[in-house]
Design a protein that fits this description.
Blueprint lengths: L5 E7 L3 H12 L6 E7 L6 H11 L3 E5 L1
Parallel strand pairs: 1-2, 2-3
Helix pairs in contact: 1-2
């Protein structure tokens, strides 16, 4: 059986203190054929740093800073 790819898109802005909880929840799901695209609307906090740690551990995460 082929599992469909699920795309999870998360908009964010200055939520470095919360984004880990969201990303950990995605990792904890039983369905594994997913990609997570985080779109950052110009954060000035450590959001990018937090995301880079997740990207290094799991290639299903993507980070886009605009």
């Amino acid at each position: 059986m082929v599992k469909n790819l699920i795309s999870i898109i998360i908009p964010t802005y200055n939520r470095a203190h919360l984004i880990s909880e969201t990303l950990d929840s995605i990792i904890a799901q039983t369905y594994t054929n997913w990609e997570c695209i985080v779109v950052d609307d110009g954060s000035t906090d450590d959001t990018e740093k937090v995301l880079q740690e997740y990207i290094l551990k799991d290639e299903r995460f993507q980070y886009h800073h605009r």
